[in-house]
Design a protein that fits this description.
InterPro entries: Peptidyl-Arg-deiminase_porph
Protein name: Agmatine/peptidylarginine deiminase
CATH topology: L-arginine/glycine Amidinotransferase, Chain A
Largest sheet: 4 strands, mixed
Keywords: Hydrolase
Strand content: 25-35%
Distance between the termini: 30 Å
Structural class: alpha/beta
Radius of gyration: 19 Å
Pfam family, one: PAD_porph
Order of helices and strands: EHEHEHEEHHHEEEHHEEEHEEEEEHEHE
Number of helices: 11
CATH architecture: 5-stranded Propeller
Number of strands: 18
Number of domains: 1
CATH class: Alpha Beta
Strand order of the largest sheet: 3-2-1-18
Shape: globular
Length: about 350
């Protein structure tokens, strides 16, 4: 039987910090490093307005370079902690820790478990040996204090799951079937319930974005929000190849029920115009936003739909400031704002 004393918190719960890794010439960002650093600087500036930021850097030279970039932009370096570790790339949503917690916020017995799933470079598409060791490296560096570290020998990325903090986990069949083709939905549901201390797993069969090499991570498609809401990426252009698939996904979301049997309140996001780069379409999802203490950081792509997407996300997260972060450089490498970050619950760091 699953022990429900631990749980996977919702992203909108209080946080200690956000974790990122700085891009450098040894990562896939090398070709457009200067452009992507502008996004990282903007992200750091936004996060440090609200809470602490932990930046993983490959070495002392990169730390000095990042500090210089941030200082020039007026970012408060007192709110940033740097940790030197090797990494293959900077998608910490997928290589970072999935943190379970137990105990109440005001309880001195509050405890944490860093759940360290196997990271395979999105199903073996890319080399990932250093990224797979990242959580252990952060633990050894003392970043997480006395938190327990549990290795799980099963491939899962943080971008592949959404939690409402109350025992419901949302994921996509396309992604997990690619990672585990030998396992049934029932078998994978049992593993997710056990490893994440969840009560139930909700599956989406439809939904994808061209240019997304994660095999339909849920955080590019649909996100839980407080008050039994779901924010999701819609497509209102019948001539777009995504239209039918995302319409089917919207119907699946409408059919989902809360643990108490009620329909979710749905918030469809507008569709950005296609972004074509060197002949390939890039995945510009507004669903890939990051929640921090008191705010939501929303991707902006220089598209006419940016402001409407920010407004809708704000309506689904009332009481939080909405901060747009320029993310067009990120989608060149097939991800966006949420993909490069991992939030850490309050009390952990």
């Amino acid at each position: 039987m699953t022990d429900h004393s631990l749980r996977l918190p919702a992203e909108w719960e209080p946080q200690a910090a956000v974790l990122i890794a700085w891009p450098h010439a040894g990562t896939d960002w090398a070709e457009r490093l200067a452009a992507v650093e502008t996004t990282y600087v903007a992200l750091a500036a936004a996060v440090t307005r609200f809470q602490q930021l932990i930046i993983v850097v490959a070495d002392a030279a990169l730390k000095a370079h990042a500090q210089s970039q941030l200082r020039d932009a007026g970012v408060d370096l007192a709110k940033i902690r740097f940790v030197e570790l090797p990494y293959d790339d900077t998608w910490l949503r997928d290589s970072g820790p999935i943190t379970l917690m137990g105990g109440a916020a005001a309880d001195s017995r509050r405890y944490f478990q860093l759940t360290d799933f196997r990271f395979t470079g999105w199903g073996g598409k890319f080399g990932a040996e250093q990224d797979d060791a990242l959580v252990a490296g952060l633990v050894d560096a003392g970043v997480f204090g006395e938190a327990a570290h549990k290795r799980v020998d099963w491939a899962l990325e943080g971008g592949g799951i959404e939690s409402d903090g109350e025992g419901s986990v949302l994921t996509t069949w396309r992604c997990l079937a690619q990672r585990h083709p030998e396992q049934s939905r029932e078998e994978m549901s049992a593993i997710l319930r056990d490893s994440l201390h969840a009560k139930r797993v909700l599956w989406l069969d439809y939904g994808y974005l061209e240019g997304d090499d994660t095999d339909a991570h849920i955080d590019t498609l649909a996100r839980f929000a407080p008050g039994e809401r779901i924010v999701f990426q819609a497509c209102d252009d019948p001539g777009d190849p995504h239209h039918g698939e995302l319409q089917r996904m919207a119907a699946e979301l409408a059919a989902l029920r809360t643990a108490d049997g009620r329909p979710y309140r749905l918030y469809p996001l507008p569709w950005a115009q296609p972004v074509i780069d060197e002949g390939r379409r890039l995945a510009a999802s507004y669903a890939n936003y990051l929640i921090v203490n008191g705010a939501v950081l929303v991707p902006a792509y220089g598209d006419k739909a940016d402001d409407e997407a920010a407004r809708i996300i704000g309506s689904a997260h009332p009481g939080r400031e909405i901060v747009q972060v320029p993310c067009r450089p990120l989608i060149w490498q097939n991800g966006s704002l949420h993909c490069i970050t991992m939030q850490l619950p309050a009390g952990l760091a």
